[in-house]
């Protein structure tokens, strides 16, 4: 389970981002997080793995009270549930094999190879990230998380900035992650991906959980707050 109970977050600037968000998510499912820009989607990921402490409320992940955990225990939790941030995640001067091996001390060469194979990059193991396109880099970053044999994944905008072909390759990786029964929290504006892969959609709005339900219910909703998010996608989808 990933559980947020009445979570409040205010930044020093005085910006109140979350004002009592509650949601209970299965860590065996792919939950997509949607919401307007600045709504607090990345904040939710950071709360889930203890990179940010809530000012009020509780956060629980994989049976652990994240908001009350000391830093050392959080480091272990982040190996069980790695968080892939949106930006660059690899060392450009290390090969993919080395980058993946750096996920944790003592990873076996077999575990590294297996993780690269899972994302279709075994043939590129000895290449540098700079020699690869953005889609392959993103897949290598996912391989680094998979090498930890995680129990859950958190992915921030995994297809943002990728062209269609690269996004489709990342989608394939996420589909295989899902087929293996691994759950994830995926922050994404990519509703095509959401429609094909999501088990559940969580919408952050007004500092709270504005919606939690199936992707079908999310895309079909006539709630004005949800329509504002889905309408541009539905229009472009009907344009062909
Ligand atoms: N460390 C911080 N200090 C102050 N404000 C912050 C901090 N981190 C995030 N914020 C603010 O909190 C709000 C939510 O940020 P967050 O990154 O979660 O948005 P988001 O929903 O992921 O948006 P986007 O889709 O644009 O990435 C934003 O207004 C952001 O400026």
Automatic annotation (TrEMBL):
InterPro entries associated with the record: AAA+_ATPase, ABC_transporter-like_ATP-bd, P-loop_NTPase
Recorded GO MF terms: ATP binding; ATP hydrolysis activity
Domain ABC transporter residues, every copy: 2-231
Keyword vocabulary terms for this entry: ATP-binding, Nucleotide-binding, Transport
One matching Pfam family: ABC_tran
Protein name per its UniProtKB record: Methionine ABC transporter ATP-binding protein
Taxon lineage: Bacteria, Pseudomonadati, Myxococcota, Myxococcia, Myxococcales
């Amino acid at each position: 389970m990933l559980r947020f109970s009445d979570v409040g977050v205010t930044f020093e600037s005085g910006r109140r981002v979350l004002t009592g968000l509650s949601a209970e998510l299965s860590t065996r499912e792919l939950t997509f997080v949607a919401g307007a820009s600045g709504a607090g989607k990345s904040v939710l990921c950071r709360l889930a793995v203890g990179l940010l402490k809530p000012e009020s409320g509780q956060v629980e992940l994989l049976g652990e009270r994240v908001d009350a955990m000391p830093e050392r225990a959080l480091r272990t939790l982040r190996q069980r549930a790695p968080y892939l941030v949106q930006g660059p995640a690899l060392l450009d001067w290390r090969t993919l094999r080395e980058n993946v091996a750096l996920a944790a001390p003592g990873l076996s060469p077999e575990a590294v190879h297996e993780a690269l194979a899972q994302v279709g990059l075994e043939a590129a193991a000895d290449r540098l990230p700079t020699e690869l396109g953005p889609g392959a880099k993103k897949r290598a970053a996912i391989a680094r998380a998979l090498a930890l044999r995680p129990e859950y994944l958190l992915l921030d905008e995994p297809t943002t900035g990728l062209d269609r072909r690269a996004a489709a390759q990342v989608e394939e990786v996420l589909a295989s992650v899902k087929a293996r029964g691994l759950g994830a929290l995926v922050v994404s504006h990519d509703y095509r991906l959401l429609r094909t892969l999501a088990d559940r959609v969580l919408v952050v709005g007004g500092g709270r959980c504005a919606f939690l339900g199936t992707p079908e219910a999310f895309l079909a909703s006539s709630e004005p707050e949800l329509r504002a998010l889905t309408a541009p996608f539905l229009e472009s989808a009907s344009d062909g």
